[in-house]
Amino acid sequence: MRVRPTGRLGAALALTIAAVIALSGCVAQEPEPTATPTAEASNTPEPDATPTGPILRPGEAAAGNRQFFDMLNNESFDANGRGDGRSIVDKLVENGFEKQDMEVTPDATAIGLAADSIVVSVRIKGECLIGQFTADNYSSSIEPLLGTGSCLVGKTRPIDW
């Protein structure tokens, strides 16, 4: 005579058997080795990185260079606020603008107080890129070259560093 499990024991036995059958397919297998690529010297040169933002355009007029001028000056303003004329000019020179084409106003007033603003200019093809740094913001414009051949009216400081 054959005995059939019933009740809780039967249900437990049935679940155990089902679990064994389900897990029998979950046998851990060793992953097959894959080929590891080796670094080889390539005779093909890497493509030049294409600039993603504004760039200096030496052959173009002020309008073609304003975005780059503003980008550099906004970086200076974000890092230093109004800052000082020398650091502003140095950043522009480091990024390709010509020092001999620049003018900058003094950092201090005649009585030694910090100037309310610093103005920097770059002469480009008979026009002037002008950037003004105040305590609160930076702004710029493109203006015609003055009859004097300069961009700024009034006293400017020598750029002799």
From TrEMBL:
Record Pfam families: DUF6993
N-terminal signal peptide: 1-28
Segments for region (Disordered): 31-60
Listed PROSITE patterns: PROKAR_LIPOPROTEIN (PS51257)
Keywords attached to this entry: Signal
Protein name, as recorded: DUF6993 domain-containing protein
Residue stretches of biased makeup (Low complexity): 31-47
Cited InterPro entries: DUF6993
Boundaries of every DUF6993 domain copy: 74-155
